[in-house]
Amino acid sequence: MIGWYNEVLSPSLHLPYPADTLAAVVLSTPSMFERAFRPFLERGSCLGVNDPIDQCIRQCITACISQCFSGQEVNVSYDYEMLPSRKPKFLAQTAAHVAGAAYYYQRADVTEDPWGERKMFGVCIHPKLGGWFAIRALLVFPSVMAGEELQRRTSPNCVPSQESRIELLERFNFRWQDWSYRDIVPTAEHYSQDQQTYFSTPPGQRAALLRDWGSPQ
């Protein structure tokens, strides 16, 4: 519910809906790349200069809403969208945490902070996918009031020890390029080699990579 999200943030970051408004967070799993993105490219669906992954995700979510929620008002915010104030439309990791989808590990989760004045960013970890997933969108259903019957699900604390949390945050902040933070817990899936290559390639060079793969992009 929107109230779960708003209650952990300052008023300037609140979403403008009643507290019991129903909302859902959309995650993508590693198989998205082969099962959705490659077919998207093969259909020649990628248009213009927008990021191909973003276009693919938007197309998939739009199709899902049309099929599953026809006639229902659904307000969609994507992880890359910004407000005129340059703030994100929603804080993706906070949304995933309060929804119980993934645990958002932050500096405050470490009792004996070893980093001094250094700035440390937090990261979400999924109990089955580790860090091998992405938070893609927030769906808000303005006309659906969840009420007390919707029970809040606690985010799964899959990195319980202080030592592991320190290791996680250091991997994410200092060595994020080596992908190792994603394996902080045993995982059921991980990104394929092509997917790792794609996301490791600077955005400005990805079109050339896709052409090398035979995409019309």
Helix and strand succession? HEHHEHEEEHHH
| N- to C-terminal distance | 39 Å
| Largest sheet, spatial ordering of strands | 1-5-2
What is the number of domains?
1
Helix/strand-derived class? alpha+beta
Subcellular location: Cytoplasm
Cofactor: FMN; FAD
Pfam families: MMACHC
EC number: 1.16.1.6, 2.5.1.151
Please tell me about this protein's structure.
- The protein has helices at 2-6, 32-42, 52-68, 92-98, 162-174, 193-200, 206-212, and strands at residues 21-28, 75-78, 103-105, 123-125, 134-145.
- With 217 residues, the chain is an alpha+beta fold.
- The chain has one domain (2-212).
- It has a 3-stranded antiparallel beta sheet with strand order 1-5-2, covered by helices on one side. The chain has a two-stranded antiparallel ribbon with strand order 3-4.
- Helix 2 packs across helix 3 (52-68).
- The longest helix has 17 residues, at 52-68.
- It is globular, with a radius of gyration of 18 Å.
- GO terms for molecular function: cobalamin binding; cyanocobalamin reductase (cyanide-eliminating) (NADP+) activity; demethylase activity; FAD binding.
- Belongs to the MMACHC family.
- Its EC number is 1.16.1.6, 2.5.1.151.
